[in-house]
Structures are given as C-alpha cells and as structure tokens.
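Human: If only I could read backbone structure tokens as easily as an amino acid sequence. Underneath my words sits a plain record pairing an amino acid chain with its backbone structure tokens. Take your time, and here it is.
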Amino acid sequence: MPGKGRGRGGAGSAGLCTADDHTGSEEEDNLRLAEILQEIKEFRAETGKNLGVIKQEVSELRESFGHLSTRMDVAESRIVEGENCQNAMTKALLHSMCLQKQLEERCEQMESHSRKCNVRIHSVCEKITERGDMVEFVKEIIRDKLGVGLEEISIAAAHRIGKKTGTEDRPRSIIVRFQNENMKQRVLRAAWETKDLKIRDKRIYFEEDFTDRVYKERGQCGKIRKQLLEKNIKSRIVYPTKLKVFEKDGQYKLFDNPQAAAEGVRAYGVTVDIPAAKPDFETTLKAAGWQTAGAGKRRTREN
C-alpha cells in the first residue's frame, strides 16, 4: 500500500512539473513579446524621427529646387535678352561695316577722280631738278622728248613724291597735274609711243597716277606679268587692276583682280603667291563667332 501511494505521488509530481514548465514557457513567451513590442516601439520611434528628418530634408530640397527654378527662369530670361542684344548689336555692326565700306569706296572714287588729271614720271635723277623749277623741267621733257607743243599743254603743278631717300638708285617719282584730262592723255600717248625715252642716258617712264590701293594691286599684277614673261607669254594690265593674258591662238583671258589672275595663270605653269583678298563682312563676323540674323532665318527655313 505504501508503495502504491508513493507511486501515485510520484505520478502527480510529474504532472505538476509539466504544468510549471508550461507556465514558465508562457512567461518566456510573454517576455519575448514584451521585448518585441519594445523593439517595435523603439523602431517606430526611430522611424518616426528619421521620417521627420527626411521630411525636413525633402522640404529643404523643395525649397532649394524652387530657388533653382527661379534662378533658371532668371537665367533663361537673361539669355534671351542677351541673344536679342547680340542680334541687335550684330545688325548695328553690320550696318556700321556696310557704311564703312560705302565710305571707303566713296573715298576711293573721290581720290581716283582727283588724280585723273595727274601723271607720274619715274626714274628721273634727283640732282637734275634739285635747284630748278619742276614745272619748267617737265615742260622741257614734254617738248623736247615727247614732241608735244607747249601751247597745247597747261601744267597746274609738278613736284616730287615722298621724302628724299638719299640715294640715286631709287629716285622719287615726279607727279604732274595738268589742267584737264585731255592734256594728260595726250602726254601719256606720246610717252607710250616714244621708244627708249631717256634723260642723261637713263630710261624714264610715264604712267597714270593711281590711288594706293590700285598701285598695290597693280604691283601684284606686275609680279604675275614677270613670271609670264619668263615663259614668253604676253600680258598687260587693264585699268584699274585687271590682267589680260594673250594666248598663242590670238585669244586672251581677262582676270578681274590679282587673286583671280594668280589662280588662272596656274594653267600656264606659273605659280605666284598673292595675298588673299579682304573677306566680306559676313565672313569676317562668322570667323569671329558672330551669328547674323539672316543666317539663323536660313537655317530655320531649311529645318
């Protein structure tokens, strides 16, 4: 009997241990849940804090983007104003350059007109005219060397050109102004028809009086003529700066300027280095980075 009682008691003790174990397990679960809840609360608190920071940063970004947008609007407005100003300045510059070109051409015409009664005499020794009257000296040349009657000629003025060089190798030219163009042409024809025109055994030359620009371009044509002459090709300079090249079949080619002549005589095996002509105004502006209004309109139509 005692043995059986102990057996029951043992069994009951075993059952009570199991209940305690169950209770302990629930407590552990509750502790874990409490810890999880605490972690969730801390996470929520931290997340809320971070969200607040993020919201503040987003707000600051929005404000910054707003400032940037305003600045971009201002920049775009200034760019448009700058482009409009540039277009206006381009038009003004083109107008000014066109006026400048017109004035240069007008001055060139006026200067050329003022020289149309003039003749230049080259290679006259300076010692011959140092102490004498230049007008009388020229009259003697016209009468004695050219055979033109002085009663038909009236000279308004005559003098040397430029500063004295101090050397007889390159004497200064003499410029002679006649009363009218007909007198000048009469003297020039006589000079061109006279063969081997000399003073004191030195050859002298008569030619028309041109502007500096024309003299420069005629000098360039002279370089080309020299090269052509070496190849036995005849040529002549046509007023003001054209070059006529005669061919063997009796035909000829006429070039309007030294640049065109330098390019054209390559066909004859002649190579002459002539500086390029001054570019037109629109080309100059484009090379400097300017954009003319006309060019923009053309591109718009093409697109």
Summary: Residues 115-209 form a domain with the Alpha-Beta Plaits fold (CATH 3.30.70.1820). The chain is about 60% helix and 10% strand. The CA atoms of residues 90 and 292 lie 6 Å apart.
